Amino acid sequence: MTRTAIVTGAARGIGAATARRLAADGHAVGVVDLDPVACADTVAAITAEGGRALAVGADVSDADAVTAAVAAVADELGAPTVLVNNAGILRDNLLFKMTEDDWDAVLGVHLRGAFLMSRAVQAHQVKAGWGRIVNLSSTSALGNRGQANYAAAKAGMQGLTKTLAIELGRFGVTANAVAPGFIETDMTRATAARLGVGFEEFVEAMVSQIPVGRSGCPDDVAAAVSFFCSEQASFISGQVLYVAGGPTS
Ligand code: NAP
Q: Please, which of 31, 94, 157, 219 could form a disulfide with 39 given CB 3.0 to 4.6 Å?
């Protein structure tokens, strides 16, 4: 069945791959990112394959912008009942060097953003009696040096997910989290640059720790999101699926 989905942070990386995948699954997709112009490639890729998509510029940490973005998608594509909270940023630093701004910015985009988007979209989901929410967590939720802010946000996404599952289940809405390991995107390229390591060298070092012997790509994550958004996943809710090429501990 065709639905309307919203994917945040969908101009590039995992969000762009997820938007394309959900469109291929038959959904109309609201492609939300900070800059609507940056969403053009994702929208073009979807429409070139016969899908429907709308570029929407919004900062997911801004309540008014979120309200306007969800309304724009509802007006243009129909009531959104699938939501993927994917927008994210890094402000890595060791604790003693981490500023309040580093902390607030990361918690603001990931956690406040997911809260605001979920609160806005659930109104449409409850009305429809059906919905899917997928939140992007991370293996960093288990703790990662230099990422006190990001790890806290990504662990928070798991608690948010479980609570959304409990509150919204009776309305036919499931909420699950996908927690990627190492995925090759601009985000991990920026991490390599910050560490002063070439990206190929960085990938090689990461892959040496991954049981399946390769790095992840955005489509690996999009496939997991697609499953959680499907009709057949209706009895799976409040779960965290690690997409990391091996077990996590
Ligand atoms: P990415 O390539 O950096 O893409 C993130 C997108 O989110 C960018 O287009 C960015 O826009 C957008 N964004 C940032 N702040 C926003 C805001 N306030 N409102 C709306 N959009 C915003 O990242 P990615 O690697 O695809 O990661 C996607 C998600 O997966 C993130 O939540 C990340 O934490 C998670 N994740 C990634 C990995 C990995 O290895 N890559 C692993 C685990 C989890 P700008 O370009 O304008 O900043």
A: 31
